[in-house]
Specification:
Helix content is 73%, strand content 3%. It is mainly alpha-helical. α5 packs across α7 and α7 runs antiparallel to α9.
Length: 312
């Protein structure tokens, strides 16, 4: 399963280098080089938070968790997680917080419609699912209503862009688009089928925190570490027989799946903001309004930077 993400990551890096003539550093961060310390800070911060939450939950309600530790399978899992799972998380980060976030921002800055069309295509399946879930429409009427809603979205974005040229040039637009698309891409997970579409709040919320920390820190390093730490710990600590990632974890969750406050809303609206405050304190983030809602700056190619340096 991880192999497919590895090929996806190779494809993104190949496109970035060959088609766009950019380095891995330019796709990753605005700094002169990738800050590995930030990657490790993001990695260990999410692990500490998640272990603390798990410990409290296990203390309060241990009945649903079954001890599942077997040394040999766990060691095999540990090696796979450490060596290969970062390929999966890095693929998603370089796609959403790197390639798409930069690409949508730059294309909208130039009034190009490719990112809007891509976003509409990504949102369309969610619209289809919502219409089916709430109104039980059959396929053809559902497709018709979905198409009309997507056309309305494109029309509204076109009107807005013509009446207010700076509206689509704001940083929150690529943040919103990439966060929603990130959540949509997880809609096929078995967790969504079991817990219901309310679980999309968690996936889209996770996309938002990863996007916010990328914009505030002006680089993907924290998001890369955060995503890898979260998925590795999840794979090692708890497994279920209905999740997308079923492993020989330490615990097996035998409880009936539910989408309550502590499962969905507590992480997104309480834990995630606390993590952002921790990062903000460590790296002294300032000017939140400008970094999240300001106008996307004009893109500067690496060749332009080299010329400027030589002129100086």
């Amino acid at each position: 399963m991880i192999v497919s993400f590895t090929f996806g990551l190779i494809g993104i890096l190949f496109s970035n280098k060959v088609l766009h003539k950019l380095s891995l550093t330019a796709l990753t961060t605005s700094r002169k080089k990738v800050d590995w310390n930030r990657i490790f800070v993001g990695f260990f911060t999410v692990i500490i938070f998640n272990l603390a939450i798990f410990a409290v939950g296990y203390y309060l309600a241990p009945d649903g968790l079954v001890w599942n530790f077997k040394l040999e399978p766990f060691l095999t899992l540990l090696v796979i997680c450490i060596l290969f799972l970062p390929f999966q998380t890095s693929f998603e980060e370089y796609l959403f917080r790197g390639y798409l976030m930069q690409g949508i921002g730059v294309n909208l800055k130039d009034n190009k419609w490719i990112p809007i069309l891509v976003t509409v295509m990504a949102i369309a399946p969610v619209t289809y699912i919502v219409l089916y879930a709430n109104f039980k429409l059959e396929m053809l009427p559902n497709l018709g209503y979905t198409g009309l809603l997507m056309l309305l979205l494109v029309f509204l974005m076109d009107r807005i862009s013509k009446t207010n040229q700076t509206f689509l040039h704001r940083k929150w637009i690529p943040l919103l688009f990439t966060s929603v698309i990130f959540g949509v891409m997880h809609a096929a997970n078995p967790e969504v089928e079991k817990l219901g579409y309310i679980s999309m709040v968690y996936y889209i919320g996770t996309g938002f925190i990863l996007g916010i920390m990328t914009l505030m820190d002006e680089g993907m390093e924290l998001a890369l570490g955060f995503h890898a730490g979260n998925n590795i710990l999840t794979a090692l600590l708890i497994s279920t027989d209905w999740s997308a990632l079923q492993t020989d974890a330490i615990f097996l969750d035998s409880s009936e799946p539910s989408a309550g406050f502590f499962d969905i809303f507590f992480p997104v609206f309480i834990i995630y903001p606390l993590m952002l405050l921790v990062f903000a304190k460590i790296y002294k983030w300032k000017n939140w309004k400008e970094k999240l809602f300001g106008i996307v700056p004009d893109p500067v190619s690496e060749l332009d930077e080299i010329i400027v340096i030589r002129e100086d």
